[in-house]
Amino acid sequence: MKTGLFWLLLACGVNAHAGGLPAETDREIQHLFTVLEHSDCRFQRNGTWYTPQEASAHLHRKYEYLRNKQRITDAESFITLGASSSSMSGKAYQVQCGDRPAVSSRSWFLQILAIDRQKRGGAGR
User: Fold this and answer.
1) In this prediction, what percent of the chain has a pLDDT beyond 70?
2) Of 78, 87, 89, residue with least CA distance to 33
């Protein structure tokens, strides 16, 4: 009986781990959310501007969906699949910070990721 329980628990642990992300990937993605939430930036989605907090909430839902479908392999894949364009319309998201011109959210997030990695000594990809 104990042997059967051991193998059952081991199988559950392996399945739970298989659906998870590497800790560094999760940390990088959470950093992207944190920077967005604390920015002075507006986020455009399908022609409407949103606050950083509204944008973060929307992107969190997309992140959870993609993570549960095991479509995220690294921070770049999250940016490309979830944080760059509308899944419904295909329109690219835009970010406008302060009085600077709007840029694609893809380039904005990739820049945030590059700065984070540089500060941490080139960690990640």
Assistant:
1) 82
2) 78
